[in-house]
Amino acid sequence: MDKVIIVGAGLCGTLLAIRLAQHGYEVALHEKRVDLRTETLDAGRSINLALSHRGLKALALAGLEEAVRKDCIPMHGRMLHLANGETRLSPYSGRDDEYINSISRPGLNALLLNEAEKYPNVSLQFQSQCLEVDLANAAGKFKQADGSIKDVSGDLLIGTDGAGSVVRRSMMSKTTALLFNYSQDFLRHGYKELSIKVGASGGYSIEKNALHIWPRGKFMVIALPNLDGSFTVTMFHPYEGEAGFNELNTPEKVTSFFTKYYPDLLAEMPNLEVEYFENPVGTLGTIKCYPWQAFGKSLIMGDASHAIVPFYGQGMNASFEDVLVFDKYLDMYSGNWEKVLYHFQEERVKDANAIADLAIDNFHEMQNHVADPFFARKRALEMKLEQGYENYRSKYSLVTFLPDLSYSKAKAIGRAQDEWLLEAVKQDRDKTDSLDDIYQALEKLKATFI
Length: 450
Ligand SMILES: Cc1cc2nc3c(=O)[nH]c(=O)nc-3n(C[C@H](O)[C@H](O)[C@H](O)COP(=O)(O)OP(=O)(O)OC[C@H]3O[C@@H](n4cnc5c(N)ncnc54)[C@H](O)[C@@H]3O)c2cc1C
Fold this sequence. Notes:
The chain is α/β, with parallel strands linked by helices. The protein folds into three domains: 3-72 and 105-183 and 286-360, FAD/NAD(P)-binding domain (3-Layer(bba) Sandwich); 185-283; 372-447, no CATH class. It has helices spanning 11-22, 53-61, 65-69, 105-117, 166-172, 175-178, 251-261, 263-266, 272-278, 303-306, 315-332, 337-371, 373-388, 395-401, 407-426, 429-432, 435-447, and strands spanning 3-7, 26-30, 48-51, 73-75, 77-81, 87-91, 100-104, 122-125, 129-134, 139-143, 149-153, 156-159, 181-196, 210-215, 220-225, 231-238, 282-290, 293-294, 298-300. It has a seven-stranded mixed beta sheet. Strands 8-2-1-12-19-18 form a six-stranded mixed beta sheet, sandwiched between helices. Strand 14 (210-215) and strand 15 (220-225) form a beta hairpin. Helix 12 crosses helix 13 and helix 12 (337-371) packs parallel to helix 15 (407-426). The protein starts with a strand and ends with a helix. The model has no long low-confidence stretch (mean pLDDT 95). It binds flavin-adenine dinucleotide. Flavin-adenine dinucleotide binds next to helix 1, strand 3, strand 9, helix 10 and helix 11.
């Protein structure tokens, strides 16, 4: 059986290794860092994640959904903590099985590594850092823990080495041979991780089964529950201005800012000042590129080919879905890598671009929701539609809970619905038209995309 080299044993690379091993391929998985099961890595960087239907579907393909669900905390809705101190729970769906899940990133990665290790045809190599890749020959140079350089080669090389991908950089260096297109867009916002302590009696100090949001217009904080009763809190703030990370540069300024904007949160964060200054500010950016494959011998997947901003909670889900789509073409064109890679790329690039755009949409929508009364009315109308009509799905629901609908279709339908609804409230049709008329009009609109 062919040998596949995978660069990067993060979430995507490890699931891919498992799936290839299940098909009988020989897999060599190289990870630049130490084994995260033996050492804690990356304190302060995206500790927990929202896992939803697309990611779960890919995990199910590898027989892992049930095992992963044991480590999940269901989040049935968004709990909004408004500036006036009120809280409001907004359910994700009226359907029982439609919720998202909070899961520990290192926990999930460890579960996947444990699983990968069970296959005799997978070799796991930590502290093996890819330095450069020979794309046409599925080969690369890997720096080992002792500083030596190891030459590695196979029949196929796949880079799942994240947003800073070395494999993608090799593709960029072949710009003319591959006609390689690349774009990178940073937001003027960054993120910082903090935590809410375990509650007084060892439980949760705020609602366990929700994704908490403190929306404050141009900046916000979110919190996702952890299994031990704590919450991981993420600040999404600009770099500049009163709320900017550059401005919040002394313990006094941080505490007084939280007292003013997040007083209820402050009470639950005794370690705020320590964590704030210990944890880094992460950047938020979108990377798009094309092609993803080179010479029928090398491929990039996951964040390496499509890093997106986290405002839809879909980066990992999309990376897992990559594995699912790859698997489909593996079945279809087994033995012909050129075809597998080409068809995977052609189907997947447009969907990855779509979720990247949707995530940016959401970043802007989250900022505008608070200030714009039309958005509030549009959301109220949409909630009525969701409650009254089994078939009506918001853009969020199309993206999150319908894994059989591609991201690009979800984007097209979701954006058209949003535009229609916003225009309707601007014309006061939410006050004059019956809900049924509005629903029928939206059904007609949807039919034009399917
Ligand atoms: C703040 C934040 C919140 C997020 N929240 C969510 C969420 O709620 N839901 C969601 O679905 N997604 C979320 N994401 C996105 C998610 O984290 C990524 O999409 C996901 O981690 C991508 O997985 P990956 O395996 O492609 O890349 P990574 O997880 O980045 O893994 C890449 C791996 O490759 C290794 N590597 C890198 N370079 C080399 C090299 N040269 N040689 C060998 N190994 C190498 C790295 O050490 C790493 O282990 C969030 C992201 C951020 C920043």
